[in-house]
Amino acid sequence: MRGREPEDWEAFHAFDEDSDAVRNGWRLTPPQSAARARKETAEHAERELDLDEFSLVIAAKQDDAPVGSVNTHAVDRVHGTFAYGISVGTPHHRKGYAREAIVLLLRYMFFERRFQKAEAWVYSSNEPSLALHRRLGFVEEGRRRRSRYANGRYDDEVLFGMTVEEYTERYA
C-alpha cells in the first residue's frame, strides 16, 4: 500500500467507469470527466496526512500500479473503534489484494495506533465481500435492513466487526 500520486488518476478513473463494480460500493454516481478525475486525484495526493483517518492505494508489487484503494473512516479515538472501506478494480479481483490490504491495515490500526475494534459494512448483494470478511474472521454483528437502494432493489447492510484480540489470535 502507498499514498495516492497525481498520475494514479487514470487507473482510478477506469475503475470508476466499471458500473458493476461501482454498484457494490458506497454510492453509484454519474460518470465524471477525465479532467475532474485528474484534478481530484492531484488534490487528494496533496492533502495533509491524518494518522488515523486516511486513504491508501493498493498497488501491485511488480510495478506499483494501482489495483484499488482502502480507507479508514468513522474513527472514534475515545472508544478505540474505526471502520474501513475497500475497493479493488474488477481486473484485479480474486488475486488476494483485498485480503492482504485488510490484514495490513488492521495490523497498523491495532498495533501502531492502539485501536481495539474494526468494523466493516457490506451490502447483502455483495457476496464476494461477505465471503471475504467471513474468511478473514470477522464476526457478523448486525444488519440494517433495506438501507440501500441500487440496481432496482433494496439491500441490507451487514455489519462485521473484529477486535484486536480476535485479530491477534488469527494473525499474530
TrEMBL record:
Name of this protein: RimJ/RimL family protein N-acetyltransferase
Residues covered by the N-acetyltransferase domain: 1-165
PANTHER family assigned: ACETYLTRANSFERASE (PTHR43415:SF5), SPERMIDINE N(1)-ACETYLTRANSFERASE (PTHR43415)
Gene Ontology MF term list: acyltransferase activity, transferring groups other than amino-acyl groups
Pfam family, one: Acetyltransf_3
Stored PROSITE patterns: GNAT (PS51186)
